[in-house]
Structures are given as structure tokens and as C-alpha cells.
Design brief:
The structure holds 2 protein chains of 2 kinds.
Chain A lengths: L3 E3 L4 E4 L4 E7 L7 E6 L5 E7 L3 E4 L2 E6 L4 E6 L8 E8 L6 E3 L3 E6 L1
Parallel strand pairs in A: 2-11
Antiparallel strand pairs in A: 1-3, 3-8, 4-5, 4-9, 6-7, 7-8, 9-10, 9-11
Chain B lengths: L4 E3 L2 E4 L5 E6 L6 E8 L3 E9 L2 E4 L8 E7 L2 E6 L8 E8 L9 E2 L3 E5 L1
Parallel strand pairs in B: 2-11
Antiparallel strand pairs in B: 1-3, 3-8, 4-5, 4-9, 5-6, 7-8, 9-10, 9-11
Classes of the chains: A mainly beta, B mainly beta.
Chain lengths: 110, 115
């Protein structure tokens, strides 16, 4: 299994819908997990951190399933502005580094 | 704070030429990371520094790549000689205590094209 895997998509979702996508990781010892958002031709920016079972921030919910070694990102009431690539990141690549998935491309359609 | 500053934003060079990418981290951040992003491989960690000292360079693809951090406010990534397969977006990121416990801030990246 690759270190961090994501479905590349694209996910085409109508505005207002709920969308969820997963990220699987191979390092069972990982304690912290992250979702980054990357807009086209821009740098990644932190969206959410997950240190225990999950985290919620407005329309966004991140959940962790340690037994199956995946984290998920749920977006409710999706907006056009949510269109972006969502990168999952897990500690690795050195003691302080992060290993990123290749990202899931999300397109919210009007 | 202006954030992480990278230069140049775009670089087009011929195969065999030397390329130097520059990064200024956020003041007070002790960690600096160099990443490379391509469609095929995604974001790959090349090397990172803690307090100006290189900690892990296992991601550096070849001896053609080298990185330095002469002081807390400046780092360079050099490719010599450059090859077309080095074409990618190179990101620099900095964080206060390492990625594990705090947000990392990325620069806007340098888009490198080697022809």
C-alpha cells in the first residue's frame, strides 16, 4: 500500500449537495492527520487538523477511522467556492515532515 | 507578516543550466521544508531544515540537487545541471515546530520549466 492514497476524482457535485471523500494511510502509528486545500496554480493551505476521532468546522467535518486506517472529509451544503483540490497529509518523510496524497479534485457545479 | 516568500515565481531555463530557487520563511519559524509537486507524483518532500540545519535530505532525487540555509531568513534550492524531468512546481514551507502540531505555511511556489 502506498503511504497516502486518495481518489483523484474529479468529483462533480451540484451546489448545495453533500460530498465526502476518503484518504487511506499506511503508517498505523500516525497520531495526527491533516486536510489541505489547494486552488488551481496556488499553494496548499491548511483546512483541518485531526488528532483524535474527528473534527468539525462549520460545513466541514473530518473523521478518523484508525481500525481501517483512513480519514474522511465531509463537506455539507457545498458552495461554488469549495471547488479545489483537497490534499490529505500524514506524518512521514522524516521526523517532522508530512507525506501528502496526490489530492482529490472537487468541482462544484451551479 | 508577509508569509513565506519564494522567488522567482516562474523560471524557464535550458537543459544543462544551473537553477537557483530562493525562499524566505516566516520570521520565528524554526522549520523550513522544500517540496516538489508534479501531476504524476504529487507533493514530494525533498529536504527540511530545523534551525538552519539540514535534518533529512532523503527526498532529494539526485546529487544534482542541493539545498542550503545560511541563516534563519533564507534558503536556496539549487539544481545543477537541470534536466527536463526537473520541471515542476517547487514549494517552500515553514512552520514553528514542525508539521506535526502546528499549521505549515507554504510559499506561492516557483514554477520551473526546463526545455
Amino acid at each position: 500500500r502506498k503511504e497516502v492514497e486518495q481518489d483523484p476524482g474529479p468529483f462533480n457535485v451540484p451546489e448545495g449537495a453533500t460530498v465526502a471523500f476518503n484518504c487511506t494511510y499506511s503508517n498505523s502509528a500516525s497520531q495526527s492527520f491533516f486536510w489541505y486545500r489547494q486552488d488551481c496554480r496556488k499553494e496548499p493551505k491548511l483546512l483541518m487538523s485531526v488528532y483524535s476521532s474527528g473534527n468539525e468546522d462549520g460545513r466541514f467535518t473530518a473523521q478518523l477511522n484508525r481500525a481501517s486506517q483512513y480519514i474522511s472529509l465531509l463537506i455539507r451544503d457545498s458552495k461554488l467556492s469549495d471547488s479545489a483540490t483537497y490534499l490529505c497529509a500524514v506524518p512521514g518523510g522524516g521526523a517532522d515532515g508530512l507525506t501528502f496524497g496526490k489530492g482529490t479534485h472537487l468541482i462544484i457545479q451551479p | 507578516d508577509a508569509g513565506v516568500i519564494q522567488s522567482p515565481r516562474h523560471e524557464v531555463t535550458e537543459m544543462g543550466q544551473e537553477v537557483t530557487l530562493r525562499c524566505k520563511p516566516i520570521s520565528g519559524h524554526d522549520y523550513l521544508f522544500w517540496y516538489r509537486q508534479t501531476m504524476m507524483r504529487g507533493l514530494e518532500l525533498l529536504i527540511y531544515f530545523n534551525n538552519n540545519v539540514p535534518i533529512d535530505d532523503s527526498g532529494m532525487p539526485e546529487d544534482r540537487f542541493s539545498a542550503k540555509m545560511p541563516n534563519a531568513s533564507f534558503s536556496t534550492l539549487k539544481i545543477q545541471p537541470s534536466e527536463p524531468r526537473d520541471s515542476a512546481v517547487y514549494f517552500c514551507a515553514s512552520t514553528r515546530t514542525g508539521f506535526m502540531n502546528t499549521e505549515a505555511f507554504f510559499g506561492q511556489g516557483t514554477r520551473l520549466t526546463v526545455v
